[in-house]
Amino acid sequence: MWGDDVDSLVVPTGAGPGTSRIVVGSEIPAPLAAYYTLPVIKAAILYYNIDDQSWYYEGILNNSAATIVRGYYKDGTIVEFLRTSANSATDITAIFGLAVNIIIDGIAAPRGERGLSYAVDGAMAVTSGAGEVAMASWGANGVDTSFVFRAGRVYAMEFQGITDTSGALGVSVLSTVRVRKGVNTTAGLELANRLVQSIGGNASCSFQFIEYVKNATGADITTSLGMTIQRATGAGIHTLYGDAARTLMLRLTDITDTATGPAGLVSGATAIT
Question: How far apart are CA 18 and CA 46, in angstroms?
């Protein structure tokens, strides 16, 4: 459908409302490349609006601030209507991850990854009894991402890592692993709750789960996410762990198909507020 149409930003063959494509480097259309010279535009998402036969774009300029620009192209002219120079790593991920929350003709922007947090510094949360214990941070060598849950979107929230228990060797015990809104908290909104089976005697067991989360508040929500651990059965110390080989990780992916989300997931997804 795209062919060479995107090279000069002419009307793409078979284009419909919401037609979109990401372009990087040498794929940047000539009109955009000519308009952005110093600094150059290094990546963009293009949207075709069939109603007025114009192109909308959102891109990142190749400078230290990773400036985001937005505008449109019609009848041979580019009009930039937004430029911001205060952008975080999450904003950059949004562009490259195809998860920009722009809706044209009622069609939601493409799906894609919103970012991830991870820890590789070993024991991140250690119980001292039966109570829930939160990780204090994602660690000196990890990454704590400020996630943006866009209004009206549905996300797959994947979390994985290692649990370790100090109970009797060979005795099966259960740990409760939770994902909460905020880091270093056992009181933040609970977004996920899973039981992980471990074998005592300091035997490590891995886990990987997915929870679906929706934002139905009508406004974007920006927050860090953290994980906690709690002894569910058995005795001894329960540890939430991640290292370079077995990363403790939380990844958020936008899976929305339309502006209101996939119907089968919206009703059952956990609501973030």
Answer: 10
